[in-house]
Structure prediction request, 381 residues.
Amino acid sequence: MQLPRNPTREVKIGAVVIGNAHPIAVQSMTATKTSNIDATVAQIHSLEQAGADIVRIAVDNKREAAALIEIRKQTTVPLTVDLQENYRLAEVIAPYVNKLRYNPGHLYHHEPEKPWQEKVRFIAEVAKANDCAMRVGVNCGSVDPAKLEKYDPKDSISPMLESALDHCEFLESIDFTRFCVSLKDSDPAKVVEVNIRFAAQRPDIPLHLGVTEAGMPPDGVIKTRMAFEQLVSKGIGDTIRVSLTVPNDRKGEEIEAGHTILNDIAAGRVRTVVDFAQKGLNIISCPSCSRVENEVFVDLAADVKKMTEYAKDHKITIAVMGCRVNGPGETDDADLGLWCGPNYVNLKKGSESLGRYSYDDILPRLKGELDSLIEQLSANV
Prediction:
């Protein structure tokens, strides 16, 4: 069966082209430390062998930028660089990659006195000078604060949508059109809604699809499939990423899952009705990537899942995040949240901080908070 496709414009990313009815590209992100050149090169090759069309790497400082230059010499797959808070690193690394990805919400962290438009203009000029595409990557937990202030706190979709549309309009106003957009949430229903709304207003712009912090397999694959079936079957989506919490040597599972989902949709092997309603315990965890500050995070996520089995029938969300980039903001909407530092784990209840604990002490502390929450929920029934 031929998949329907929105008439998006063509965007070239190295040897890969997305949009304009080109095949949907499947991508992933390295989980090794970018500064570890040998490990990162090995993982890129492993992802490419698994079928990755594009590989993303995070760069947060000059040391990682220097490592990326060497990594490029040893790889051929199209590379996307994930700019963190320091958008000026784009100038250093753009000659060695094929796409620059930035998060509109993170532009406020570095040089906060400068307007975001000035920073985006800088990135776009660097991209154009170095034959790079761009991605405007909007995430639910790190939305432009100016947009959040305009909407009801219960409406998490409208701020994301407005931020993406504003950045598209600005990029086009400075004559830069070689970009795609992503709008990601950990809730597949919200991923579907925000992407449908964006595609209705801007059917010409290619979309990168993903459910952020989907968690461990098989749950993470199921959540992602739920969103992709609803979007890809409507012609929405030009490149995809399945974000799973897995050890480094299993990152290829993201690529395999992505290809399987696309093949199933094309063959009509989909659910006719998808029920997005959460009926019990929901554990979300970010994909293992190079931003993770302690690799024990992956084991911790698995331990949390195992420890909380007894609470599976309670409608509670627990978030387990691996770094300071996604952790503080993207745990706010969970009932209980953990975000990991190098030597300790921050524990939260909603947006309230409950302190930080060692990796050895965090599970008993989390269990105590979970038991209290279950008791409160039971008392309200």
In short: Residues 272-276 have pLDDT under 50 and may be disordered. The domain at 11-266 is CATH 3.20.20.20 (TIM Barrel). The longest helix spans residues 362-379. DSSP finds twelve helices and 15 strands in the chain.
